[in-house]
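Our platform keeps sequence and structure together, in a single record for each protein. Such a record has a labelled line for the sequence and another for the backbone structure tokens. This encoding replaces a full spatial description with a residue-level series of whole-number codes. Below, we set out a record of this kind in full and without editing:
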Amino acid sequence: MTAINRSTNALRNSNRQLLVWRLLLGLVLVETGYLMRAQAAPGEPVGGFLFSCGLLVAGLVFSYAAIIMEMPERRLLIIQLTLDVTTIGLLAHFSGGVSAGFLLFLCVPILLGGYFLGARAALTLGSLAGVGTLAAHGAYAAGWLPSAASTTEAVGGLPSLTAVLHAGLFLWVGKLGGMMAARTDTGQRLQNQATAQMQRARSEVRNILDNMGSGLLIVDSDATITRANPAATNMLNLRLSDIIGQPLPTALGGDRAELAECVTAVLQGGAPVPRHEVTLHQGETEVPLGLSVSRIEDEDGVLSGAIAIFRDLTDIRRMEERVREADRLAGLGELAASIAHEIRNPLASIRGSVELLDSELSLSGHQEKLLKLILKESGRVNTIINDFLAYARLRPPAPRMVKAANLLEDVALQVRQHVGVHGGGVRLAHRVEPADLALRVDPEQLTQLLLNLAINACEAMEYKGELELTVSEGSDGKTCELWVRDSGPGLPIEVREDIFKPFITSKRSGTGLGLPMVARIAHAHGGSVEAGASEFGGAAFCVRLPRPPRRTEPVRAEAQPASERREPVGAST
């Protein structure tokens, strides 16, 4: 659409330009015809000359009105040039005869036709002018067309040699005009292509710079900022109008002076800065920036400016700190696991000895209570150690395709058995949507995850209430969602973020490792877990796992063999 509009506007401008050229040509024709009429014999009629002049004026007026009325552009160009050729022929006929050289003015519309309409139009007009000249000569010679020229003209109105020379001249001018027009068109086309490529390149560069995640500043040799992308203005907390065209020290003064100093040093002949770190002070906040400054040189190698590219390192610093913290925690975890393992062995000996004493001694009163306390607390310590070792030594998942319905049915069966052992009345419901949904997971670990959540929910409800287990496709089409909802007391908002951290629990006898194990299993499968409120008024846990790709292996009928089932870490937490 843009190209069509551009072409239409070009043709409209061509019609206006041609009208101006025709106006100048008309003035020259009328003046030349008047001078030739002044040299004619007295008493020679002037009606034909006046008619030709009137036709010339009428053609100019018509062309102007057609341009105002937006007549089809190319058609109007053809009409204007045709009127010019006709008018010049008539003026030549009525202004002293065609042998006086008046026909040479036909070269003008021929060249104009080539310029405005192309090579074919120039050659066509030249051919018509040549054929018309020869036809007029033949008509004069045969007496079919009376000459309006003076009686001093040669017999026939135009010598044959002159007619042939005129015809050849018009053909040559048409050919020359066509060649010039073709070359002009080629040059214009190449220029348009170069202009379009340059505009496309500018647009691409502008889009690249505007969408860069890194900030960019370009300054000239006078340290004036000539360009900045949106990322730069966002990092510097400035508006684009505040820095473009401003001297670098003025625009980046105060808390941003360190950045300006690095760029200024390069502008003053210093070495480029491949990698450097500066700090922006935004109020009480310090923002670290990774900075590189490069020189801009002209063709002669003279420094003409500098480019500064910088990036906000805040997230990277946070990530590095998290990695260091994770390394520290990993080291502590390995040490703690080693210590726990070493504690468990003597603890087993102590507990075994106490149980032996309990069976051999007959204690009563306070001594019996102390012995029972030792057995109870040693058992709790053993549970904590076992849960911690299970958490610290979680093996990498071995995922395979399993049917979600079979997996959920297996979990529901174990939950019902657990509730029955505790004499509870939990109403359990479970469903899978769609029914044939398959998951690519480690069935043993995912069973442990769901059991931890379900048993925690039963304990929170004191084994009375509603419990719902669902597996469904995520709304984004890329995940699967596993929901565990209960009608218990729920979770306060302020503790929902912390409950997945180790050793944080609200239970009297809990170890605080059940929910961290849930989070660790979810993350090991490339997913996440969130805590919220359920529609029953209690707590709701949502585990989101990546949806498996197109099925490439058979789906296992069983989620987990019964021989592989183990008591979940969170069963007593």
User: Anything to note?
Assistant: The chain has 15 helices and twelve strands.
